[in-house]
Amino acid sequence: MSATTPWFGTPRDPGVVPIKKNLFEEVIHATGDLELVPVFPYLGDGAIVPCLSYAMGGGGAKKFQFFHANDVPEVMICLSEHNSALRAGMLMSFPDLHGVNNFLKDVDDEDAYMLVVVAIRMREGAQHEGFLMRCRECNEPVFRLDRDIKEGPERPYYPEFYALRLYADAVDQFNASDRTCAKCGTVQEPFPQDQLGWKRYARQVELANRARAAVEAQGV
Ligand SMILES: [Zn+2]
Q1: Closest by alpha carbon to 161, among 179, 176, 149?
Q2: What 3-state DSSP class applies to 102?
Q3: Which of 30, 127, 186, 198 has the maximum number of C-beta atoms within 10 A of its C-beta?
């Protein structure tokens, strides 16, 4: 196997090696709310991908709500929380379409947080996810973007979990739209892109690969 193969492996690949991670320490590497940081670098077909995710109160954080469509089940376990709608040890299995928010009772509480792991199964072939926004007044769908999350820019050195790029792109498109409900006319608030970690994650994966490629190209 090549030196890079294990990074793209599945549990069935002999090159995949066990890795030990401290999930609490991994929080340091997340860049924003609900980033879904893949805990292990194994994102290929057949992999179960545990992703670390948090939300914090204070610092001008805003409440948000979106809906997530997924054609495979997701399982979430809460590791720790304070002043959250979740409880430590709570295990939830999400249906194919479910609402997502920061699960904090008081988003202005600087001590409020929730820390969860969301496990996502990567099946063979295409895997579709959708990002939906509904009207805050009448619940009418006002925006939706769907994509095969197996597709994204080629990453020769460090794999990218492409679902986060879908969320980031969806937020950019939603915020650039007129955000007006076709049913009741309510103009929706922009989604707080900077509070979420999705766009920074996608940019930093790109940077990591570009920086490594530059060094490799120099033959050092
Ligand atoms: Zn409406």
Answers
A1: 149
A2: coil
A3: 198
What are φ and ψ of residue 32, in 5° steps? 180, 170
For residue 10, name the pLDDT band (cuts at 50, 70, 90): low
* Distance in Å, CA 144 to ligand 1 centroid: 15
Q: In what order do the strands lie in the sheet with 128-134?
A: 97-101, 65-70, 128-134, 141-148
What would the pLDDT profile of 182-205 be if each residue is shown by its tens digit?
Answer: 999 999 999 999 999 999 999 999
Q: If you measure from the C-alpha of residue 115 to the centroid of ligand 1, how many angstroms do you get, rounded to a whole number?
A: 32
Range of the domain at 44: 5-217
- Residue 214 CA to residue 9 CA, distance in Å, equals 24
Rounded to the nearest angstrom, the distance between the alpha carbon of 136 and the centre of ligand 1 is: 7
How remote is the CA of residue 141 from the centroid of ligand 1, in Å? Answer: 8
The rounded distance, in Å, linking the Cα atoms of 83 and 112 is 5
Q: What is the 138 CA–ligand 1 centroid distance (Å)?
A: 4
Give the CATH number for residue 57. 2.60.120.10
The dihedral formed by the CA atoms of 197, 131, 208 and 10, expressed in degrees to the nearest 10:
120
